[in-house]
Amino acid sequence: MQKKEFEQKTSEIAELIRGARRIVVFTGAGISTESGIPDFRSPGGIWTKFDPREFTYQRFIGDVEVRRRAWQFFRAIPWTDVQPNRAHYAVAELEGLGRLDCVITQNIDGLHQMAGNSPDRVIELHGTTRYVICLDCRKRWTREEIEGWLDDGVEIPMCDVCGGIMKSATISFGQSMPVEETREAEERSRRCDLCIVIGSSLVVYPAAYMPIYAVQSGAKLVIINHDPTPLDTEASVVLNAGAGEAMERILKQVKAGLGKG
Ligand code: NAD
Ligand code: ZN
Questions:
Q1: Distance of alpha carbon 123 from alpha carbon 207, whole angstroms
Q2: Does ligand 1 come within 6 angstroms of the Cβ of 127?
Q3: Which ligand is nearest to the CA of 227?
Q4: Calpha distance 243→231 (Å, rounded)
Q5: pLDDT at 244 over 80
Q6: Nearest 5 degrees, angle CA 220-CA 200-CA 184?
Q7: From the centroid of its chain, how far is CA 123?
Q8: What's the CA gap between 20 and 214, in Å, rounded?
Q9: DSSP state of 119
Q10: 16 C-alpha vs ligand 1 centroid, how far in Å?
Q11: Active site residues per annotation
C-alpha cells in the first residue's frame, strides 16, 4: 500500500472514531500475530504440527489418546510468555479515552486484558487459554498451576475434586458457544455506532455475525486486515495493512484531534 493511501485511510478511521459514541472493536488472530502467535491461515508454524480441528469436543471427551495429544498442544505455544503488541495497546488506549464500549474477541490469548483493557469490557467468544476447567464440577485452575502438574509428569490431568475430565477453558470445534458471552456480544454489536474489525478473516461463525449485526443496526464498519474479507463491501473504510502500525497511527491521529496528542 502507498504511504499516501495509508495516511488517507488512517485519518478517515480516526475521524470516524472521533465522531462515534459507542465503539465495538472486534478482533481475531491477526491482531496477535505481531506478538508471535501465528494465525490459522498463514502457512507453516504451529498449525502444521497441531490441527485444532483434530481436537473436536466430541473426540476430546471420547478418546483418551486425543486428550493426551491435546495436552501436548496445550504446551506447544508459550502462552504465558507472549506480550501484547502496539495494536492491543492502541485498543486499550481507546478505552482510556472513554471511546470504547467493549472488545469482542475470537482470541484465546488474553492479550487485550494484559494490554490494559478492563476484563469486564473484553468479551471472549472462544474462551481463554489462561484457565483450565473441570467439565463435571466446573472447578477452575490457572494455566500456571496445570503447567506445574504437567512438569511433574502428569500427561492427562484429571480433576482433584471429582475425578472429572479437565480441559483448557477454550471453545473447541464442535463445542457450543458460551451463552452469556454470545448474547452480550450480540447486544453490544447491535447497540454500537462504530464497529472496528482488526485482524480477522471474518469466516468463522457465529463470531463473524457480530460485525454483521452492527451493520444491520446502522453502525459504520471499519476493517483493518492484511487480506480481503467477505464483509469488505459493507465497510466504510477497509485498510489492508498491519494491525500494529495502523492502530498506532490511528490512535495518534485520534489523540491529536482531541487535543491530547
Ligand atoms: P484467521 O486466522 O482466520 O484470520 C486472521 C486474519 O488476520 C487473516 O485474514 C490475516 O490476513 C490477518 N492478519 C494476520 N496478521 C495480521 C496483521 N499483523 N495485521 C493485520 N492483519 C493480519 O483468524 P480469525 O478470523 O481470528 O479466526 C481463526 C480462529 O482461530 C479464531 O476462532 C480464534 O479463536 C482462533 N485463533 C486464535 C489465536 C489467538 O488467540 N491469538 C491464534 C490462532 C487462532
Ligand atoms: Zn471436578
A1: 11
A2: no
A3: 1
A4: 18
A5: yes
A6: 65
A7: 9
A8: 13
A9: G
A10: 24
A11: 126
Cell of 11: 485519518
Residue type present at position 123: I
Question: 170 in ligand 1 pocket by Cβ < 6 Å?
Answer: no
Would you say how long the chain is, in residues?
261
Model pLDDT, residue 78: 86
What's the rounded Cα separation, in Å, for the pair 67 and 45?
Answer: 22
Is-contact 147 30, C-beta < 8 A? no
Given the DSSP bridges, would you call strands 166-170 and 140-142 parallel, antiparallel or unpaired?
A: unpaired
Q: Is 172 in the pocket of ligand 1 (CB under 6 A)?
A: no
Mutate to test the pocket of ligand 1, among 39, 88, 196 (most ligand atoms within 8 A of CB): 39
Q: Which residues pair with 194 in a beta bridge?
A: 23, 220
Residue 208 DSSP class? T
Does the pLDDT of residue 103 top 70, yes or no? yes
Catalogue all structural domains in the chain, each as residue range(s) with its CATH number. Answer: 1-36+83-125+177-261 (3.40.50.1220), 38-76+127-170 (3.30.1600.10)
Residues 204-213 have pLDDT tens digits of: 999 999 999 9
Instruction: Write down the mean pLDDT value for the chain.
Output: 94
